[in-house]
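*** Protein under study ***
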Amino acid sequence: MKIIVTGSLGNIGLPLTKNLVAAGHQVIVVSSRADKASAIQQLGAEAAIGSVSDAAFLTNLFTGADAVWAMTPPNMGGSNVIKNTVNAGRAYAEAIKSSGVKRVVMLSSIGADLPSGTGPIESVHHIENIYRELDGVNITFLRAGYFYTNFYNDVPLIKSAGIMGGNFAAHTQVPLAHPEDIATIAAEELQQPGNGKNVRYVVSEVRQPAEVAAAVGTAIGNPALQWVEFTNEQSLQGMTQAGVPQEIAALYTELGAALHDGRLNGDFIKSGSPLAGKVKLEAFAQEFAGKFVG
């Protein structure tokens, strides 16, 4: 199969590319950075350098492909983030339609069923709806849980204040997913023909932030490490003081609030809270420890 992987060699793109190349497929990896071409080629894949907002570039690339891994960058610019991301989704949709590709697997998220109030996830809600209008294309929407790797953002807080924290409570039920699990399931879906438009959740387990802090603390030699709940205002201020652009900080504060009140998990729970990933918290905590020390 000829499979297009967008998202360059990121946390998902790298293991996904390795998986597909190992399975014997012709893999073309899209990156906006020319300096990534060598690393892509060393994996046995081909590099296509260009922008995922460029419909003409994508159309040319998708033509003749058997399947596409469609991933839109979550923070496209420091302003108008939702608009920019949705516009990239429109470029994908135009290219999918014009090229005639029949199989697409899209990275989406828990909470994508909600039209607003979910921070950056709002963009994939709109993109899912755009893709649903594509006739004759089999699309799987992979709604991933909250990435374990998001907790790497707590490293400076642990080192400076001895805590982990966010604007959701220690007892919040958080569906978690590891990028490698997402890559494994994406590879599985890309190699299947699909049937219409379908949602598949990618969640490794559901855990509480208090449990995350305990597991991470044990792994880094600080078993007393605790999760501290911040107000929305404290969360927003903390991110902006750390250099995060105001708009992006506001979006991630909104995301935390949606986790806090349980709205984000609604459809996941209605779907039976399916667990698909294999990487569990304790294994991730060991990964975290390696990053923490490094």
